[in-house]
Amino acid sequence: MHKNIEMKNYISCLIVVILSLLSSFANAESHKHDFTVQETSVTRLCRTKKIITVNGQFPGPTLTVRNGDTVIVNVVNRARYNVTIHWHGVRQMRTPWADGPEYVTQCPIRPGGSYTYRFTIENQEGTLWWHAHSKWLRATVYGALVILPKQGSNFPFSLPQKDFPVILGEWWNRDIIAVQRQAQFTGAAPNNSDAYTINGQPGDLYRCSTQGTVKYSVNPGESVLLRVINAALNQQLFFSVANHMLTVVGIDATYNKPFTTNVIMVGPGQTTNVILTANQSPGRYYMAARAYATVRNGQFDNTTTTAILEYKNLKSGANSRPLLPRLPAFNDTATATAFANRLRGTPNSNRVPNQIDENLFFTVGLGLVNCTRGPRCQGPNNTRFAASVNNISFVIPRRTSLLQAYYQKTPGIYTLDFPRVPPVQFDYTGNVSRGLWQPRFGTKLYKLKFGSNVQIVLQDTAIFSTEDHPIHLHGYHFWVVGQGFGNFNAQTDTANFNLNDPPVRNTIDVPVGGWAVIRFVADNPGVWLLHCHIDSHLSWGLAMAFIVENGIGEKQTMEPPPPDLPQC
């Protein structure tokens, strides 16, 4: 009798699961897009020049999908440079071939070539973005990726009446590849950008820019969802809207416990969803962004980009100068820290692993390479800049991609001896001995077993200067269980970890002169890059990569490479 009841209950549960799955599949859609990478003439700051774009648009097209949808993007390269596209923050479950970093998960799409990226959005909602992941082309090759809830599901907050992407970027008057090549030749820091941009436009405060300034029109009383994306190549940014408070509701395509602030700090690669209510006197208000700069005595672009929040049907003052928000000082670490400390995850996002299988400690920071005085030795005191993780400056291969080498078991491309802790322990944020300034170079990977619980301490270093580093992990999001200043102390700092409601991110700003601790479950097989999202630092070697082994069965095994995967 009991067995019959148990069997009926089992069958009933099975039917519910099957119907739920069928409903999910029925609501999911396939989105097909065509990207043509090409040269396009644009005019900014009184100059007309050619830049690399997608479909002639700058920024590129916004892709709007739903959680559970499949995305298919055919990329044709009509530009003169090799190119790849990275879908920043997409988990890419079992589809590492679609992740996009050049020579990591694929060889580049050569001029005249094409490649189709295919992936499914799984359990992600909010704002992500896409960008080139080859050379510094992402300076102009980028766009928003908006992920709505599944059909029949809702936001965990009241539906806003308006929904706008706000993409923060950097603009150089010079050709960006020429800027990169000069920095790589001289060994010095790259030239600063000439402007910051909002949706590709510098805004009123720059020369020849008033006409193109982006305007967002709102009705009094409307709630507006601003999807703020930092697509800047090399700079963290503060963002604010004059006289309006911002309610933070999401970061990196995850929801957080809402809180209200007048300013946010967004690191390169990060996204922040905020809700603004148009509850001020009808008028014109600047939204503005400028640098949060932490390098000691470092040079940076100190200009301010603006767009205009404009109330509709203004009877007076339609052409008046908008109010400008008060942005924090460039080095206001206290404000950046206060913002980060208010971020808390929601109950649905928090299944933080307590038992750790892989306990890793990674130093991140710049270094200096000794060289002979001359045109190729123009870094500080006749050196060349380098950067490293655990004193290993990452060398990206050129013969094939790391993922292809792993899948095909090609020897001689990488080694599996990346150090789990720094080879030498030292006062990471104090006075560092000159003997530790110069890193070693190599293509060293670290292997993780499928399903292992991983903790990484990310520790800033004071070689050359302490600095806030936005560290991005491909193929994963992670819990940020702790942050602090100085050297991480496992004895005292572990007790203060937030294991109840930590925020979930794909890119974490490691505090200047401090540390951040992240945890994730290695549930996505493939080769996954971890790197600083400041592109000059990535070029200098501030990166490493994980190999996550297959688990058991099809759902824990990476898919085979697609037939059109580019060859090196």
From TrEMBL:
Statement: the UniProt record of this protein carries the keyword Oxidoreductase: yes
Major localisation: secreted
Every Plastocyanin-like domain range: 37-151, 163-313, 418-550
Catalytic activity: 4 hydroquinone + O2 = 4 benzosemiquinone + 2 H2O
InterPro entries: Cu-oxidase-like_N, Cu-oxidase_2nd, Cu-oxidase_C, Cu-oxidase_fam, Cu_oxidase_CS, Cu_oxidase_Cu_BS, Cupredoxin, CuRO_1_LCC
Leader sequence residues: 1-28
Location(s), subcellular: Secreted, Extracellular space, Apoplast
Enzyme Commission code(s) on record: 1.10.3.2
Cofactors demanded by this protein: Cu cation
Assigned keywords, A-Z: Apoplast, Copper, Glycoprotein, Lignin degradation, Metal-binding, Oxidoreductase, Repeat, Secreted, Signal
Cofactor note: Binds 4 Cu cations per monomer.
PROSITE patterns: MULTICOPPER_OXIDASE1 (PS00079), MULTICOPPER_OXIDASE2 (PS00080)
Role played: Lignin degradation and detoxification of lignin-derived products.
Family assignment from sequence similarity: Belongs to the multicopper oxidase family.
Protein name (database record): Laccase
Lineage of source species: Eukaryota, Viridiplantae, Streptophyta, Embryophyta, Tracheophyta
